[in-house]
Amino acid sequence: MSFESLGLSAPVLQAVADKGYTTPTPIQEKAIPIVLMGRDVLGCAQTGTGKTASFVLPMIDILAEGRAKMRMPRSLILEPTRELAAQVAENFEIYGKNHKLNMALLIGGVSFDDQERALEKGADVLIATPGRLLDHFERGKVLLNDVKVLVIDEADRMLDMGFIPDVERIVGLLSPMRQTLFFSATMPPEIKRLADRFLSNPREVTVAPPASAGKNIVQGLAVMPEADKREALRRLIKDQDIKNAIVFCNRKKDVAILQGSLKKHGFNAGALHGDMSQPARMETLEKFKQGEIQILVASDVAARGLDIVDMSHVFNFDVPFSPEDYVHRIGRTGRAGKTGHSFTLASPDEGGLIDAIEKLIGTTIPRVEIPGMEATAFEASDGRRRGRGRGRGAGGRGGDRGRERGERPPREPRPEREPRAEQEARPEREARPEREPRPEREARPERAPRPEAEKRAERPHREPRAEGRPPRERRSERPSRPDRRDRDDSPAPVGLGDHVPAFLARPSR
Ligand code: AMP
After folding, report:
1. Which range (141-155, 293-307, 464-478, 494-508) has the least confidence?
2. What torsion do the CA atoms of 95, 97, 101, 104 make, to the nearest 10 degrees?
3. Which of 87, 353, 378, 440 suits 107 as a labelling partner, its CA being 20 to 30 A distant?
């Protein structure tokens, strides 16, 4: 099937041809004609399938006629992460280059001002993360009643990240007279229930994952003591023909440490994790996309769903705690029909995690040797594994693993790791302190302070305390914490200072 047969306009087809696409992907083939008909779509597809173009291309044609009013966007695309939202915005620019559609991108971590200006101009397309969109709404900067097309993208990730209440609130602000396109990589019951509520007589479109693990990704696994991993990674990077690579760590602090170490050894490495400011994240990502950074050390939260065209390698410096994350991570390579490579560095006690991954992907990850390094085996967790010592087991593709699947459950997550939802939701939450006070709040400080006596007179009369119960310390009477005293510029204590002698604290009869 060709793009021409899908019903798209000539300017959109031209933009697609300029981008170099010749054939629609299965999701594009199925979804585009339905969207152009004005029907709701329930799409079961994940990133890497060409899903973005499957809604962006027909939306451009739907929105081609008409103009957006000030602060009243005509369409809304909700994305779970800032990076995904920015990626969709890039797609709009590429595919919409032959149209004059105004776009506004509302994501956290960056200034409100530019976003407000874009809203004031009138946005034909509004691309947003839920938290930042609600911030703008609450400040009265955007009205959603004119939205005619709504896209909820990556719904299952929204659920993971705890954004569903925000999404529900946003959908409640929209007119029911709209077209809704709802995409999710998986359809657990909660997501199906949401889809049933948001969609009206939808057409269901399901496509297979883009590259099931192992299809066009050459995987490798090496087992070594934790302390050898940095050396092993450097050797692997030198040994492989790397165009660009992501190195995944499980913890944010390790991302920074590993990046520093790689740089010290002369590698062109950048870092990406959830504790970085949004401008720094965007800048690093852009440099990586442009090839200015060759190796990106990243945490899962920062790298989810990223579409880096033609990425040659993925390294798991740590084995991910969740097997799904493994599939997610290695899926950053081997995209759009290209062959990718992934290497996982496991420590001897991570056999259980690897078991769980191999069970999920239905295959054994081939063991590889790292040039110049001694191979190690997974630790035996009980008698059945005894006898597999150092020097065996890491060599040979798909070699003898000497352990049964499921023999040991995956190790408990390490304590310092944040729970998943927290980890991912943080970027949006981080943005909140930035929120400027709302107009009515701004007015408050102007109110003249009420005299203390007047306030006291209004306080309800307190019953005398029961006998024998010590009086509760008032805040000012509590001993201040040493760290607070260190930091404060408070004057020296007057009278007894913070110390209240016991006889004064005793209740009076
Ligand atoms: P997505 O699933 O939207 O993240 O897209 C995954 C990758 O496939 C992106 O790099 C797109 O540029 C690319 N892509 C999308 N549609 C096509 C197509 N019809 N032919 C080739 N590549 C495509």
Report:
1. 464-478
2. 70
3. 440
Containing domain of residue 85, as a range? Answer: 3-206
Our count of domains for the chain comes to 2
Residue 286 lies in a domain: yes
CA of 310 to the centre of ligand 1 (A): 11
User: How do residues 445-487 score in pLDDT, each as one tens digit?
Assistant: 333 333 333 333 333 333 333 333 333 333 333 333 332 222 2
CA angle 93, 95, 100 (to 5 degrees): 60
| CB-defined site of ligand 1, < 6 Å | 21, 23-25, 28, 47-53, 307, 309, 335-336
Q: Whose CA is nearest to atom 19 of ligand 1?
A: 24
**Domain stop point among 336, 361, 386:** 361
Asked, for residue 96, whether it belongs to a domain, the answer is yes
In 186-277, alpha helices (H): 189-198, 229-239, 252-264
Last residue of a domain, one of 313, 335, 361: 361
Same-domain pairing of 7 and 145: yes
Tell me the sheet residues that pair with 208: none
- The residue ranges of DSSP E strands in 235-339, in sequence order, are 245-248, 269-272, 295-298, 313-316
Residue among 27, 52, 216 to mutate when testing ligand 1 (max atoms within 8 A of CB): 52
Atom 14 in ligand 1: residue holding the nearest Cα: 50
Neighbours of 10 (CB within 10 A): 9
* Residue among 74, 61, 134 at smallest CA distance from 104: 74
Cα–Cα distance between 320 and 297 in angstroms, integer? Answer: 14
**What is the torsional sign of CA 190, 353, 404, 345?**
positive
User: Does residue 229 sit in the same domain as residue 184?
Assistant: no
How does pLDDT run across 314-329, given as a tens digit for each residue?
999 999 988 878 887 8
Same structural domain, 127 and 59 = yes
Give, using CA atoms, the residue closest to atom 13 of ligand 1: 50
Same domain assignment for residues 164 and 226: no
Whose alpha carbon is nearest atom 5 of ligand 1?
50
Q: Which of 64, 104, 110 is nearest to 88 (CA)?
A: 104
Closest approach atom of ligand 1 to CA 52 = 3
**234 within some domain:** yes
Residue among 12, 140, 125 nearest 79 (CA):
125
Q: Please indicate, yes or no, whether residues 117 and 77 belong to a single structural domain of this protein.
A: yes
Q: Assess contact for 55 and 216: CB atoms under 8 A.
A: no
Of all residues in the chain, the percent with pLDDT exceeding 90 is 51
Assign residue 44 a region: left if phi > 0, alpha if psi is -120 to 50, beta otherwise? beta
Residue 290 CB contacts under 8 Å (≥ 6 apart), including other chains: none
Write the CATH number for 248. Answer: 3.40.50.300
Residue 229: inside a domain: yes
